[in-house]
Each structure stands twice: as structure tokens, then as C-alpha cells.
TrEMBL record, chains A, B:
A Pfam family it matches: GntR
SMART domains xref list: HTH_GNTR (SM00345)
Membrane is among the record's keywords: no
Organism this protein belongs to: Loigolactobacillus jiayinensis
Protein name, UniProt field: GntR family transcriptional regulator
Residue span, HTH gntR-type domain: 7-75
Leader sequence residues: none
Keywords: DNA-binding, Transcription, Transcription regulation
DNA sequence: TCAAGTGTATTAGCTTTCTATTACACTATA
DNA sequence: TATAGTGTAATAGAAAGCTAATACACTTGA
């Protein structure tokens, strides 16, 4: 996994777990990799993993069980809300940044379409 | 100006200057506010401003003149490239993050359209 | 010439983040 | 019961970012 050095690692790990849950690699009630396993996999210190997970625990997204491991919540309300939040925040970010460039909303959609079309063409590698 | 505490302030200021140039609040050859003025306006230390500007200077986006001030480059090649880079990087970020959620490109456009429509409706405040 | 306003540089100290290490509490199982 | 594997906690040190303060180099204009 690659980290952006402009953002705290623990925060990026938190976002990573969000994505793993939303994509379905981690499903309701299932166990996460061990904190120590995650530390090895992501080549990061145990404390940094713990810092990320402690925030997810506060949010009731994952449930810790001493001596056993960490588990994804089975509360579907939380899980469906999570998906909406993460996706919406992506669009929020794009919208705000492009609006700051005086780009009108209709143009944002057009430009995204153009960007994606170009990306398809550029796949000749 | 509001800063995101997850990203270095100097970096956000750099992005801010990019936007001011692209939007046209700062035009080719024109003088930027003084470093000390910027420090007051953004309620940030002079050194933090200096750190942001030093990167813009390395990129030849702004040109410093000792005893006079900092000026936006008159090199149109740099300025037009800048605009493209900034806008493209916004789409890059959105694309990567949504792709990580297994959202196909066509859906991204649809969802952005829906998001923008909702935002219009929500303007009833 | 001199004073005020520029950019530039340096030092010191604080806070946050990350790492390394050690220790402890709990669970499962041999 | 003992051991290995969990989460949890605390301490110390390094690095990055930010602030505060001071000083210096250059330009402009009175």
C-alpha cells in the first residue's frame, strides 16, 4: 500500500478500512486482520494501526473483542450510512474544489465525461 | 481562510495560490500580496507563507524580486499548463477513489449528475 | 543619505505523527 | 494449567510542521 505523505498515515488507514468494507472485502460481522498482521502488511507500526482502529471503534464501525480480534459491525444502519458518507464526501470535495475555480456545475459533469473518455483512449499501453 | 488540519498549511496555501491564478484574481506579471500581508490575512506565520511560496518559485509560477515583491510569471506556457494540471488532478483523485470502491467510470458520471441535481434542490435555505 | 518596505535566512521551542519497545489483560486451546 | 495469540496501554525518541523572534540584503522614495 502506498501512503500520501501529505496526510497522516493513521488517517489513510482509516479510509482504507472504510473502502474495504464498502467494496465488500470485509463484510458485516467478519474479523479484520490482526493489528499485528495489519502492521506487517502495511509496513507500519502497531501503534499507528491502533490509532486508526480506535477511531473506527469510536464510530462503532468495528467492534473490538479482547483476546479475539476486531470485527466489522453487524449494524446495517451504520454500514449503509457509511457507504453514503464516503461516496458523498468524494463528490463534495470535487465540487468544492472545482467551484473554487469558477467552474459551473453543468461543466463539471461534461469535463468528467471528457476526462473518462480520454482515460479510455489512453489505455493503449 | 479555513485550513484542513489533515494537510500541511503550507501545502494548502500553495494550492490556494494556484486557484487564485487560475480563477484570474492574480494575473500574469502582477504582484502578489506581500509575504507579511499574506501572513496577516491568512493568520499564519511568515515562515509558513515563505515555505509555500518557495515551492511556487521553484516551479517558476511566481518570480521573487528582492526588495520589491513576488510576481506571477508572464510565461503563458507555464500558466496554461498549470490550469490543466490542477483540474486534471481533481479528476484523477475522484477517479482513483471511486475506482477503489468498484464504481465503474460510466456510473461516476451518472452519480455526479445526481449529486449536482440534489445540491440544486437543497439550495432551499 | 536614510528610513520604510520588500524578500531571505537562522535559531529555538512547541505540537503532532510515527516508531520502537515493553508490559499487561483477555481468550482459546493443547 | 500453560502457552500462544489476541487487544490495550505507556514510555521514550525521531522527524515534520508551525510559530516567534531576530537579523540581513535589497529597493524605493522622501
Amino acid at each position: 500500500m502506498q501512503f500520501n505523505d501529505k496526510v497522516p498515515i493513521y488517517y489513510q488507514i482509516k479510509q482504507y478500512v472504510y473502502r474495504e468494507i464498502i467494496v465488500g472485502h470485509l463484510t458485516a460481522g467478519h474479523q479484520l486482520p490482526t493489528i499485528r498482521q495489519l502492521a506487517v502488511t502495511l509496513t507500519v507500526n502497531v501503534n499507528t494501526i491502533q490509532r486508526a482502529l480506535s477511531e473506527l471503534i469510536k464510530e462503532n464501525v468495528i467492534i473490538p473483542q479482547r483476546g479475539k480480534g476486531n470485527f466489522v459491525t453487524t449494524d446495517q444502519t451504520i454500514l449503509t450510512a457509511l457507504k453514503q458518507q464516503v461516496i458523498t464526501s468524494e463528490f463534495d470535495q470535487l465540487y468544492d474544489n472545482l467551484a473554487a475555480l469558477n467552474i459551473p456545475p453543468a461543466t463539471m459533469v461534461q469535463q468528467l465525461q471528457i476526462y473518462i473518455d480520454q482515460r479510455k483512449d489512453d489505455q493503449h499501453d
